[in-house]
Amino acid sequence: MRPNFYQHIHPPTIPAAQARWRYTLGAGGTAIFLVLVLVVSGALEMFFYIPSTGEAAISIQTISFLVPFGGLVRNLHFWAAQLLLIVSSVHLIRVVFTGSYAPPRRFNYLLGMGLFVLVILLDFTGYILRWDTGIQWALVVGTNLLKTIPWMGNFLYQTLVGGTFPGSATLVRFYSWHVFGLMLLAAILMIWHVFRVRRDGGIAVPPPELRGDPRRISRNELVHLEIVSMLLSGSALLLLSVFFPAPIAPGITEITALSGAASAPWFFLWVQQMLKWGDPFFWGVLVPLIVLTVVGLIPYIFPKPSRQDTGRWFPTSTRLAQIVLAVMALVITALTLIELQPVP
Amino acid sequence: MNTFSRRDFLKLTARGLLAVSGLLGLGIITRFLGYKPESPTPTEYDLGLASDHPIGSRTEFPDIPALLVHSETGFTALSLACTHLGCTLDQTNSNFSCPCHGSHFDEYGKVIHGPATKELVHLHVKQNDLGHVILYPES
Amino acid sequence: MTNRFLFISSVILLTTIGLTWWFQSRQVQPVAITPSLTGQIEYCLTCHADLKEISPAHPLETYGCVICHGGERLALEANLAHSSMRGGNNPSDLSVVEQSCGGSNCHNGDPTEDHDHIQRVMTSIQSTYAGAIANVRYTFGAQADLSPLLGTVAVSDTSIPSQTGILHLDAFDPIIETNPFLQTFGANCLTCHLNSKAVGDLKDTRFTGCAACHTPIGENKAGEVHTLTTAMPYTQCNTCHNRGNYDLRTMTFIERSDQPVTRFESYYQPIGQFTQCEYSLDCLDCHTRTEAMGDGDIHANEKDFEYVQCRTCHGTLTELPLMKTLTDPDDLAFRLTQLNPVVDLQLGDTILVTEQGEPLWNIRLLPDGNYELIGKATHQLFTFNPVMGSGCTQDGQDQSSAYCHECHAVER
Fold it and tell me: Which residues of C are less than 8 Å from A69 in CB distance?
């Protein structure tokens, strides 16, 4: 039987051991599914969202309260976005902890890092599109952090903000980045990333002589597994969307009047905590960039996994890389939790 | 003999359930897209005091667009939207012409020539208690 | 096996979608109104449909809710909808009153058209407390004389003030006062002005701002707070007035100790001296709009702007009370009657006016030369005659209330 497109992009067979949930956690595939949900729900939101400073928050309230299933579409978009960030991190951790970044997969690792950065930027730009009192802090601080960068700071600020102060030009630019600029880049990188998985030989597996289980599953079985995963993830997403609405706040009337508790989006809380320690450029720009660079260069600066270590969790030859990543993840989580503590 | 195994049943039911889910999803999207933000379009226009429009007057209201005519028999109104594709008509002498595709109408709204085939729509007018002329655009 | 999983997960998905549809159908149906003054849809009535219209002068179809209260007009979720409301549950609080009640077409307009309520209230003595603050600070050595320098909030009068008017007051801040008595004064004694919330037993009887007077919840109407009226009974004034007295030595407020039951007993403090009309009528039957809301200038002492006396209505032995015949249908008197239609004023009626020209629109000249008064809040009808031509033995020079009380005060 001739395979359809969906089956065509899956290999004819893959080793059964590597197809198990407990090996890959299904993280990469779930990420793709979440991207799909984001694109569809985002496209639907585009029918009602208005990227103007006076009307953005009102249009979001219209979607949330007045459009039939509007609240659902918005909540799906919100939860898919936050889960995508988490699932991408899980995928990254899985890849490092199974040594699946060994050559020839090093370039694909970089593509994945690029996607990770794009996901963070998409999450942030989407957050700003709310243009309500809840995002004010992030907007002002985030854009001002750019100004702290030596030499290029003011130029970057002007380019991103479109003026001397966040205003209507900023919103239009963030909207354009979110809906098109970043999406285009992400689409290219995603296709390339998935293609490279096939090109590099599929999911990383141990060498043939070390494989305990010689069984393989057919592409039809693999497709079935993916469908099941999508159905379950979809149901979980729906439940989250029904019971936990996305945050919403009154629209910004005056950009300078900060109201309510000043807070960063959850994925930047660790940066907000570090910003309390001193120089904004060092703690707000440099340290996060260093963290990103170290993680991004793991396949290049740490010892490569030995041949017998591929395709399994916690290989001994990449212990250093695993420890470094684990420590970073723990520190970031700890900083986030500290920032969440209520101020006495 | 027809073999319909348990596997086939599960497969069919699963597909059926997914089809229903898909239809519901489509329903959600359709209802979502069908929402009309209520823009309050006026249901009536106050054209001012009747005494401002003496007998024999023909007053244009380009915002509606409409023409108010006060003849011996009373007030009538013609819609000045071309019946072809909706452009607002220009008035030359007592006739009307459409700048978009060249339709021409006479002073009573009948088609003289042009791609338009239907005559101009007559709109409902009446006077209220305060002596104002109220126009009701076609609903 | 994957077939079984597929089946199960299909069931789960369908159930979840069904749950979603069900939740959607349970959503509250929004109730929309488009007030004519804003032209923008509001959905407040979805939850608040049974709230009484606040006053006939502020009809729902014209004003809606958001133009006064603020808030998120499209939100159907309580926290979000109420989050940007001005002044919490009282948009007339003086910190936000200009956005809520202001505007040149509303209550922040032309003084010559009597549309300047907000400017007057914000400089009024009931708001600033300037005299009391100056007195206490002088007593305890914080300022060299009785000149009013501070008020409860900082306020400026940009227009040329009257003879006794002041240009500017700074805000009184007990924290920076060095004398401990003044700090106690700040803590104990500043609860009866328009900027302060009522405390203790009075907590639910009086709002701040315009609502302090115009929303008479008092002791009788707890719960019915969504009202605005110009017919305030004396009980509302008594949420601040006639409650007791201050003792400067202990810097505390001593509540009046009697247990009044009737109107006669409760109206004034036991030390008060008053005539029959002073307790049968409500405060606003005599005290005018300028006296209560201020004349637009900053004053420190009541005597600089309180001017109504017994003779304002009763005249003297040699003069009749001032009167005016209504010939202009736009006269303020007609506007005030419309707000509180206790009397059916017509063109050609003659009403009393005060020495400053303020209309006493509920007092009319009768054909026989006497006058009729209808209580603005009590709706009681009184007829009375002028002093001129009566048996009164007053000395024409002294027109103070204490002098009239010598004969006319009622016995407790």
Answer: 20, 24
**pTM, whole model, 2 decimals?**
0.86
State the pLDDT at residue B138.
Answer: 67
CATH architecture of B45-136: 3-layer Sandwich (2.102)
Q: Domain map of chain B by residue range?
A: 1-35, 45-136
What is the nearest CA distance from A60 to chain B, expressed in angstroms?
A: 13
Judging contacts by C-beta atoms under 8 Å, the chain B residues touching residue A231 are: 18
Cross-chain Cβ contact C74/A242 below 8 Å = no
Is the Cβ–Cβ distance between A84 and A35 less than 8 Å?
yes
Residue A168, C-beta contacts closer than 8 angstroms, at least 6 positions apart: A52, A53
Closest approach of B5 to chain C, Cα-based (Å): 12
pLDDT at C172 over 90: yes
Q: Identify the residue whose tokens are 């999207």.
A: B29
Residue holding tokens 């209260």? C69
pLDDT of C225 above 60: yes
Structure token pair of residue A264: 């960063």
- CB-based contacts of C112, cutoff 8 Å, min separation 6: none
Q: Band the pLDDT of A257: cuts 50, 70, 90.
A: low
Closest approach of A268 to chain C, Cα-based (Å): 24
Please tell me the distance from the alpha carbon of residue A275 to that of residue A288, in angstroms, as a whole number: 11
Q: What is the model's pLDDT at position C125? A: 92
- Count of domains observed in chain A: 1
In a domain? residue A120: yes
Q: Minimal CA–CA distance to B29: which of A68, A80, C13? A: A68
Give the start-end residues of each E strand in C181-339. Answer: 244-247, 252-255, 323-325
Contacts of A228 in chain B (CB under 8 A): none
Mind listing the pLDDT tens digit for each residue in A50-61?
999 999 999 999
Q: Are C383 and C371 in contact (CB under 8 A)?
A: yes
H-type helices in C45-115, by residue range? 45-48, 60-63, 66-69, 78-83, 97-100
Mention every residue, 6+ apart, whose C-beta is less than 8 A from residue A11.
Answer: A198, A202, A219, A222
What are the percentages of helix, strand and coil residues in chain B, rounded to 5? 20, 30, 45
Does residue A205 sit within a domain? yes
| ipTM score for this prediction | 0.82
Q: What pLDDT is attached to residue C81?
A: 94
Q: Give the CATH number, domain containing residue A153.
A: 1.20.810.10
All structural domains of chain C with their residue ranges: 113-293, 307-408
Q: Which domain, by its residues, includes A236?
A: 5-259
What is the pLDDT confidence band of residue A188, given thresholds at 50, 70 and 90? very high
Most B-contacting residue of C2, C5, C6, C37 (CB-CB within 10 A), to test interface: C6
| Contacts C32 to B, Cβ<8 Å | 38
Distance CA A330, CA B9 (A): 48
What's the per-residue H, E or C state across C89-104? CCCCCCCCHHHHCCCC
Give tens-digit pLDDT for A277-305: 989 999 999 999 999 999 999 999 988 88
Helix (H, G, I), strand (E, B) or coil at C398: coil
**SS3 assignment, position C171:** strand
pLDDT tens for each residue of B82-94: 999 989 999 888 8
How far does Cα C70 stand from its chain's mean position?
21
How distant, in Å, are the alpha carbons of B21, C240, C303 from that of C205? 57, 10, 28
| Section A305-331 average pLDDT | 88
Q: Do B32 and A73 touch (CB under 8 A)?
A: yes
For residue C260, is the peptide bond before it cis, meaning its omega torsion is within 30 degrees of 0?
no
Cα torsion angle, A127, A131, A132, A136, sign: positive
SS3 B112: strand
Q: Name the residue of chain C whose CA is nearest to A248's CA.
A: C80
